[in-house]
Prior knowledge:
This protein has helices spanning about 5-25, 55-65, 70-80, 85, 95-110, 115-130, 160-170, 175-190, 225-245, 245-260, 285-300, 305-325, 355-365, and strands at about 30-35, 40, 130-135, 135-140, 150-155, 200-205, 210-215.
Amino acid sequence: MKKENVLWAQEVREKIVTKTDVTVKRAGKIIPYTTKDGKYIDLSAKDIGWWTNGFYGGMLWQLYNYTKNDFYKDIALWIENELDRALFDHRAMDHDSGFRFLPVCIPDYLLFDSKEAYNRLRLAADNLAGRFNPVGFIRAWNDPCDASTAGWAIIDCMMNLPLLYRAYENTKDCRYLNIATRHADTAMKYFIREDGSANHICEFDPKTGVFVRSYGGQGYKEGSSWTRGQSWALYGFILSYLHTKEERYLDTAKKSANYFISNIPESGLIPVDFIQPKDCTYEDSTAAAIAACGLIELSKVCEGDEAAKYEDAAMKLLKALVENRCDFSTDKDNIVEKCTAAFNDKDHEFAIVYGDYYLVEAIFKLTGDAIMIW
């Protein structure tokens, strides 16, 4: 990392810690998704299976790793234990098991050799592996009423594959590796378009694996370019490369990243969809934060001008967020603003917890203080 970028990130890191020292203590033991009137809304009682429920705990672990303040660790451990209710509820377990359990369990396992955290990771990995359709993909979502989405897979799952890669690394059981790479290869073939843009949802014949069609999903429309999906692809494929050292995943990560970079607006602020109507101003700050994390990892495995290109792009995204879309006051619990879950949802541009998580992860990557949870 360039020295000036590290120094800048160190200043941002201290702003984050100054804020969270107040807001985390004020919020106490909660599992948030978004905010109301600037204060986190707790999902721990209402919806323990919500897919984002690991991110707040992951952010607290990142903060604990840097500060060693026990109140971060204590709440992170409480969240980890609370998520057992999701782990043992088949309705809650889906393709997003990595998002739920990696952020809360990996730090506990790495820092404290926790047998309980390891057990949760193995159970979650086995559940994710059980979703694999042998024709070549991990099924998305649950459909208790019928099998209409039995052939659906989504780009988000690329970010959940590290749950399987880590299970392989810990056990040397090739089933985990084979499932992860089979899904990644399917995603590489059918989700990533020739120009590097990514589909959100692809449907396959669940009996034969034959590709049926793509869907617009959370983007503007079919064939468009949902930016958070693009960031999942960018970061997900570099993670597959880091775990396997297979060059095809690095090449795909670069292809996805190059498309993302070519579409970054001059402002550095990321729209919900890269091809949304020109008169639409909806933003998704989470896409910027996630992409920055992936770009930083890409810069580490590249050299020369290529490495500088990815680092510079990450810094453009992060500086735009910090200068224009972050609230470092203690008035609000959230840091990142103007996040959007899906283009066609009713609500847009609000606080979402994984915006904060990925901002913290990106800043802490630059300063050398991050735990690699993926």
